[in-house]
Amino acid sequence: MSGHSKWHNIQGRKGAQDKKRGKIFQKISRDLYQAAKAGGPEPDGNPQLRLVMEKARAANMPKDNVQRAIDKASGLGGAKYDEITYEGYGPGGTAIMVSCLTDNKNRTAAAVRSAFTHHGGSLGANGSVSYMFDRKGYIVILRDGLDTDEDSMLMDALDAGAEDMKATEDQFEIFTAPSDMTSVRDALQDKYTLDTSEVKMFPETITEVPGDKVSQYTGLIDELDENDDVQDVYEAAKLPEDAE
């Protein structure tokens, strides 16, 4: 029995690792698509694409996966991909936005609607929750091995056109207007190695998930995250401290 139990424990750990790796690859694929869509499929003329391809190599992402994401942006292979954002309410009335990239709108809409319904939420109309979020450019520079203090980084960010910066023990988070993200990124990239560079949604207010809705809420987020068409899930919610 001990050998059987050990086998299952190893399989369980491997399954968790594979799932985590799959989510990393999914995010990188999204970033590759967006970078190639915005700046073209050739890395020599697209600094953002080069940055994401470097992250893909660091994560040991297969070359076929990388090329597939770039081909999607280029329209190769015959499939047409659409970017769609769904808005809805999770358990307890929490606001959620779901950003998707799909070659089949009907399939994706049905899956997202089903996830909300199964877990006590509901999809809303366009604009139903987006007003609760602020769209910003978001750049992350890791502090590990970086010989730059907070004041110097702030000055460089502001000189590049950023709106704000937040420093943590591990990284500098730089915020820009969406229209300025590319120019700020390019200016900072001349001096620093960027870990993240994207436009994303940030909640303006946070609602705590009711204690009796935590299981439903986490189930909803997990189901959305596991959908291959889902690129990002933006939440204007937090779990109670005793549930984290």
Automatic annotation (TrEMBL):
SUPFAM superfamilies: YebC-like (SSF75625). It is found in: Cytoplasm. InterPro entries: Integrase-like_N, TACO1_YebC-like_2nd/3rd_dom, TACO1_YebC_N, Transcrip_reg_TACO1-like, Transcrip_reg_TACO1-like_dom3, YebC-like. Residues 81-235 form the TACO1/YebC-like second and third domain. Residues 5-75 form the TACO1/YebC-like N-terminal domain. Residues 1-23 are annotated as: Disordered. Keywords: Cytoplasm, DNA-binding, Transcription, Transcription regulation. GO terms for molecular function: DNA binding. Belongs to the TACO1 family. HAMAP family: Transcrip_reg_TACO1. This is Probable transcriptional regulatory protein LNP07_03925. It comes from Apilactobacillus xinyiensis.
